[in-house]
């Protein structure tokens, strides 16, 4: 391959070191606390909770179009037309947040609620008013708004001109971000330009599972990712040049990341495959933004080799110009990561045809079968992966401030309130983040989990992820706290995990007349070591048990060795 061998060796050794951490260490529970300014919070996204799909001037998004089309493939043909009805239940949502006593609330803006056709010319003031009420309500309750500008719900009008495959989207998105910075930035200081662009590029344009439901796995995901990265970077610079000095906020991008480990650490190809998996998934977007403005060498080399074998003259992976590299590099003030699970990878030689991002990777993924299952396949609850991922981010991307912006576990909706699996996840995943913070020196600054059950994209309403149960068959959509909400409340209150009383060391002294002694039994024999220990005793209590002869023998031995105070009991 064409990339530097030293880079491969460094990354491979890094994977190996993280994988070799002792099993005892990962199973040992850690008690401690995060920093006093740690940002405990909850999260949501517009299409998943708001409803009001056409209320007060809102335009259709690609998700409205997709879910309202018969045969969408979503279980029970449900839609997000009403969802949690948060557009009409702002007071209830604010009450929930206040009751939890969270420090932050991450939510996303509905692009088509603000600009119904995606452009400034179509401004819908009613939509702006809704978000102003939400932001003001949060601040009145001393809750920090963490705003995602775009969370997959592209206005349908923009998809009609090609969506993210159209390079014009870079400027269109920048104008939308500019408006949001200008209108909300006096109160919002924590921005994420977009959420999980990797998921959008692959699931939306590669597999077709989510809107815009395109299946062009060999080219479209790379083209879309290229435009998404440049759109993010352009918006970052707009904030940097126009708003940062007066508003003093921070801007980043929320990236999804799973931890992976080689199936066999003694097989070099599996070790390299594990690093390649991290670069193909997280590094695809993080490497250009947090490192050098360009894609990881592993990603570039893999796609180039496969493209050449397919008879193409150039790589299917677009390249950045030097000017674009300078535009993209360093366009994040903090590292925002969504994390759910960890997997095992094995090296394979992927098929050459058809061209596909998945075939380009040359590895397969499988479950960690010794870890707890969840309601979603290939998404086991692997808590130790959290700590290892955070270590990876620190080493790979220059020790940034890290905010965990999504983390939860899926449970069947029929479980309703008694979500013991989620309780277990919080107690273990958050503890692994605490280990990373206190033991590894990683700058973990915040944590957010799902506020309430919601529309789970291609899973519909079959699964619950939130702290609050929503009965989607009830037109009033009541919000009911689950068992996990009570646990999370206490974790936040304690700012981590305080040492329980039964784990604390107890120091003190017995009463003056406390009788210190040793004991034996008639059937046991007195060894040489025991005889030696008798010399050290001032007082011995003897239980004659059943053998008088042996008792007399013990008395003789102790008198011989000078034990002064002997009592029979």
UniProtKB/TrEMBL annotation:
MF terms in GO: hydrolase activity, hydrolyzing O-glycosyl compounds
UniProt keyword Glycoprotein present: yes
Pfam families for the chain: Glyco_hydro_1 (PF00232)
Annotated transmembrane regions: 539-563
InterPro entries per the UniProt record, alphabetical: GH, GH_1_N_CS, Glyco_hydro_1
Keyword annotations from UniProtKB, A to Z: Glycoprotein, Glycosidase, Hydrolase, Membrane, Transmembrane, Transmembrane helix
Keyword Transport: no
GO biological process, one term: carbohydrate metabolic process
PANTHER family to which the protein is assigned, alphabetical: GLYCOSYL HYDROLASE, LP05116P
Quaternary structure note: Homodimer.
Family (UniProt): Belongs to the glycosyl hydrolase 1 family.
Full protein name: Lactase
Source organism: Poecilia mexicana
Higher taxonomy: Eukaryota, Metazoa, Chordata, Craniata, Vertebrata
């Amino acid at each position: 391959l064409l990339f530097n061998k030293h880079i491969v060796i460094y990354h491979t050794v890094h994977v190996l070191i993280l994988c070799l951490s002792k099993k005892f260490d990962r199973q040992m529970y850690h008690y401690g606390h995060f920093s006093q300014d740690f940002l405990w919070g909850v999260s949501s996204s517009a299409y998943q909770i708001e409803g009001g799909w056409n209320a007060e001037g809102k335009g259709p998004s690609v998700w409205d179009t997709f879910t309202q089309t018969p045969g969408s493939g979503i279980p029970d043909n449900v839609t997000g037309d009403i969802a949690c009805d948060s557009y009409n239940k702002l007071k209830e949502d604010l009450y929930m947040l206040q009751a939890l006593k969270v420090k932050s609330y991450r939510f996303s803006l509905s692009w088509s609620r603000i600009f119904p056709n995606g452009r400034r010319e179509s401004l819908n003031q009613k939509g702006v008013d809704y978000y102003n009420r939400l932001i003001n309500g949060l601040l009145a309750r001393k809750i920090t708004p963490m705003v995602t500008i775009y969370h997959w719900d592209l206005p349908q009008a923009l998809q009609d001109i090609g969506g993210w495959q159209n390079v014009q989207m870079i400027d269109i998105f920048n104008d939308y971000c500019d408006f949001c910075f200008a209108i909300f930035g006096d109160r919002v200081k924590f921005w994420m330009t977009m959420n999980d662009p990797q998921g959008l590029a692959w699931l939306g344009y590669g597999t077709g599972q989510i809107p815009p439901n395109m299946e062009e796995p060999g080219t479209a995901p790379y083209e879309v990712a290229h435009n998404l990265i440049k759109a993010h970077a352009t918006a970052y610079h707009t904030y940097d040049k126009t708003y940062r000095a007066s508003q003093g906020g921070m801007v980043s991008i929320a990236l999804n990341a799973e931890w992976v480990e080689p199936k066999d650490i003694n097989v070099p190809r599996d070790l390299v495959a594990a690093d390649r998996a991290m670069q193909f998934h997280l590094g695809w977007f993080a490497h250009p933004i947090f490192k050098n403005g360009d894609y990881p060498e592993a990603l570039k080399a893999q796609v180039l080799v496969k493209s050449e074998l397919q008879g193409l003259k150039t790589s299917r992976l677009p390249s950045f110009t030097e000017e674009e590299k300078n535009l993209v590099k360093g366009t994040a003030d903090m590292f925002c990561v969504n994390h759910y699970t960890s997997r095992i990878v094995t090296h394979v030689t992927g098929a050459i045809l058809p061209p596909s991002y998945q075939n380009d990777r040359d590895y397969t993924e499988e479950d960690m079968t010794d870890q707890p299952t969840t309601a979603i396949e290939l998404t086991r609850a692997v808590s130790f992966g959290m700590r290892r991922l955070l270590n990876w981010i620190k080493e790979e991307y220059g020790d940034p401030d890290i905010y965990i912006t999504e983390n939860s576990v899926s449970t069947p909706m029929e479980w309703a309130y008694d979500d013991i699996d989620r309780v277990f996840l919080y107690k273990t995943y958050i503890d692994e983040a605490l280990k990373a913070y206190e033991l590894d020196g990683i700058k973990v600054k915040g944590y957010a989990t799902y506020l309430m059950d919601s529309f789970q994209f291609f899973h519909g309403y079959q699964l619950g992820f939130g702290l609050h149960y929503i009965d989607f068959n009830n037109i009033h959509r009541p919000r009911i706290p689950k068992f996990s909400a009570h646990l999370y409340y206490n974790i936040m209150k304690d700012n981590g995990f305080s040492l329980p009383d039964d784990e604390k060391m107890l120091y003190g002294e017995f009463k003056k007349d406390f009788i210190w002694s040793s004991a034996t039994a008639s059937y046991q024999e007195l060894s040489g070591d025991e005889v030696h220990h008798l010399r050290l005793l001032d007082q011995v209590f003897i239980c004659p048990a059943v053998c008088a002869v042996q008792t007399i023998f013990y008395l003789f031995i102790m008198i011989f060795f000078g034990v002064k105070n002997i009592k029979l009991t």
